[in-house]
Amino acid sequence: MIVSVEVDGIIYDAQSLKNKRAVLKRIMTRLRNEFNIAVSELEYQDLWQRTRIGLVTIASDKVIAEQTMQQALAFIDSFPEFERTETHQEWL
């Protein structure tokens, strides 16, 4: 089972692309290390405060894949500098 999620978010404190990328790098690196999932910024690379990141996981069981993704989303929500605005989930 493959689960992919696209997360739109806002980083209100980012005053430059450098600030934004520092926050995203920290979040994405920790997601990779904690949950062993693929993570990438998909859109809005040139906007200071807006972003869309993609997360993908593969598991032999749908329940395990979905649990991993829900834990990853909760982890993203734990960062006070990142506000998740929209989330789109897809199962393949």
Automatic annotation (TrEMBL):
The gene is ylxP. It comes from the Bacteria. PANTHER family: DUF503 DOMAIN-CONTAINING PROTEIN (PTHR36441:SF1), HYPOTHETICAL CYTOSOLIC PROTEIN (PTHR36441). The lineage of its organism: Bacteria, Bacillati, Bacillota, Bacilli, Bacillales. This is DUF503 domain-containing protein.
